[in-house]
Design a protein that fits this description.
Radius of gyration: 16 Å
Distance between the termini: 33 Å
Largest sheet: 11 strands, antiparallel
Helix content: under 10%
Structural class: mainly beta
Length: 193
């Protein structure tokens, strides 16, 4: 279990800090899901989003919406992300991470703590606060393990759902606390880059 926690933390840190090249490139990027090259959807009026329920409130993030698929050696990394506001300097945002240690993303359900160690699941919610953030998939003793379901990967768009506990991470001390928010009824509809 300690090895899994260490690898999950390393994976989270590696992919959470990756450079986002999507603003620097036009059109499609090679390495997409189910195809050697998938062009990003050209319909800019499409309603891409990540939405979820936190407590009783429904949150919907419609800005900086994208699914980033990249190679990391033999592994594949899929980052699903969205921001609450285009003008928010601190970027209230959510990111879901799927790292496939073998294979590529396909339709199915992926749960935190895969016993066969074929993939890692994690997530982060940035409430636009310099003192804390929320993380899922890093705490081995979780109340509600993070679960991400991919329901379709079609025409450069990925759709699905998610749910799980996101634990408060105190950025001033570096401590991952036992306080958590349960994110339920999560859905995503994102263009793949």
């Amino acid at each position: 279990m300690k090895r899994l926690s260490s690898v999950a933390l390393l994976s989270f840190l590696l992919f959470a800090c990756q450079k986002d090249l999507s603003y620097q490139e036009e059109g499609g990027v090679s390495g997409g899901v189910n195809s050697p090259a998938i062009a990003a959807p050209s319909d800019s009026s499409a309603a891409y989003y990540v939405k979820f329920k936190s407590g009783k409130e429904l949150e919907q993030f419609n800005f900086n919406t994208k699914a980033l698929l990249s190679d990391a050696g033999n592994a594949k990394s899929l980052v699903l992300q969205a921001s609450a506001n285009a003008d928010n300097v601190k970027k209230e945002s959510i990111r879901l991470y799927l790292t496939f240690l073998s294979g590529s993303p396909v339709e199915g359900t992926y749960k935190q703590g895969d016993p066969e160690f074929k993939y890692l699941v994690s997530g982060s919610y940035n409430p636009a606060d310099a003192n804390f953030t929320y993380s899922a998939g890093l705490n081995p003793a979780t109340e509600l393990p993070l679960s991400i379901t991919i329901t379709s990967i079609t025409n450069g768009v990925i759709k699905g759902s998610f749910k799980g506990a996101f634990y408060k991470h105190d950025l001033t001390t570096g401590i991952l606390t036992s306080d958590y928010n349960n994110y339920s009824e999560g859905e995503f509809n994102l263009p793949i880059y």
